[in-house]
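Person: Please comment on this record:
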Amino acid sequence: MRLNEVTRKNLNPKDWIKKAVDPSVCRETIDYDCEVVDQNGQHLISYLHHVDDMRLEDVRKALVRVKYITDIRTGGLATNSRIFGYAPRNPIRNHICRKVTMAIEQPIEHHILTAASDIIESLYKKYSPEAYEHHRSKAIEKISDDWRIGDTVFTSGIANKNNALAYHYDSGNVKHCRSAMFAFKKNVKGGELCMPELDIKFDLGDRSLILFDGQSIIHGVAPLKVGLTGGYRITSVFYTLEEMWKCLPINEEVMRERERRSRVESKQAKEKA
């Protein structure tokens, strides 16, 4: 595992956020296993260019079968993605903490994707031990076991297919904790993960894994081109949502929702009387 020291620049986020990625801006290309630290010795990133674990081939097949949803994200780019794991309460659409709809619509694929969190957990612990211990303390302290994926630190994830993403910060995750991303590639060019303040870009390998705090590092995905015979760049990103701190154990969540519905129905009945 190579140690790569970078000089972290003091960039103005307004000059970068929501702008399309030009990979030539980031001079150094990383396509090898490495640990990235800044000029002060602060550990920022762990990257494995190829994870030698055949269980990931089942994950690949599941990701290919996922029914992605098209949406418009930062910079007006159309993206194909699907969330997995757990979701917090939403005051408009959902008033209860819950499994996401993919768990119901594609239960086999959802199970395979969430089970991959065990693979990530062991690699996270091995290559970013201090960051992992901090992350686990936050998850165990604040989040009910019912809302963590297995016995891991993660609550949720998102699968992305052939997405170029403008520069952005991640949002909504537990602060100062890392996200973990597997990448799967076939017959595709481009799609580098670029981090301009570190002046580096990752030419993600097939079955690669990257661990970093996307809430503190500006990053984006360069345009990509799929081969004429088809191909893909699919990633599965695991993270811990801060809103899950508010979720009660599942039995209490169900009781809370029943009481809420009872109050709403009682109010509606009085209004009709």
User: Anything to note?
Assistant: The radius of gyration is 20 Å.
